[in-house]
Amino acid sequence: MAGKTTARGTPLFKVRRSRVHGRGVFAARRIRKGTRIVEYLGDRVSHREADQRYADRDERDNHTFLFIVDARTVIDAGVGGNDARFINHSCNPNCETVIEARRVFIEALRTIQPGEELHYDYQLGRSRDDPPDVDEIYACRCGQANCRGTMLWPPKKKAKGRTTAGAQRGRRSTSEPAGATPAAKRKRASRPVR
Ligand SMILES: [Zn+2]
């Protein structure tokens, strides 16, 4: 699978097995800081629709291809997604997600050398009805010195000096359909909070 190509015809990245988690996306050539590498594509659905799609999924299954665009829209890369869905999480990422005109792009936070795995911080939201061991379910194995140990964003009270827009996305909303099984909610990635 090849990504965006350059004038010389070499794709910027390729997908192969990762030591971190399943498949991963790796730089196929040097990627300069600030490069827009790939768009996060998939089916654009409401939060409610995303929940309904994955309501039957085991809550201990930590795979998620959902990305929050805003309060209205989630991108489900499990349907019509591209290679961007294979980019793994890291607590010390070399990429970041940027939302522009309600589209999500993955950009290089620094210059990335060929062969390096690409990753961004998923910042998965927390929710009141998460199981007690939710941090174990979403355990991070990025191996970075600053690893939080979880792909979830820190609890609000610990996120000092930051806005928590991303972290709040996982909360119950009043539009919750009656009878929904809250514990079965799929986690969603969100854009970096600055
Ligand atoms: Zn980590």
Jot down its keywords:
194 residues; mainly beta; Beta-clip-like; 3-stranded antiparallel β-sheet; 3 helices; 8% helix; globular; binds zinc ion
Structure overview:
- This protein has 194 residues and is mainly beta.
- The protein has helices at residues 47-53, 134-137, 165-168; strands at residues 13-17, 23-27, 36-39, 43-46, 66-68, 73-76, 88-89, 95-100, 103-108, 119-120.
- It has one domain (13-184): Beta Complex (Beta-clip-like).
- The protein contains 3 helices and 10 strands.
- A 3-stranded antiparallel sheet has the order 3-9-8, with no helix packed on it. Strands 4-6-5 form a 3-stranded antiparallel sheet. A two-stranded antiparallel ribbon has the order 1-2.
- Mean pLDDT is 82; it is low at 158-184.
- Bound molecules: zinc ion.
State the shape: globular
Give the biggest beta sheet.
3 strands, antiparallel
| Strand order within the widest beta sheet | 3-9-8
**Rg, Cα atoms, Å:** 16 Å
Helix content percent band: under 10%
In the CATH hierarchy, the architecture is: Beta Complex
**How do the SSEs run, as a string of H and E?**
EEEEHEEEEEEHH
How many discrete structural domains?
Answer: 1
Number of strands: 10
Bound molecules: zinc ion
The fraction of residues assigned to DSSP E strands is: 15-25%
Q: Give average pLDDT, whole number.
A: 82
What CATH calls the topology is: Beta-clip-like
Structural class: mainly beta
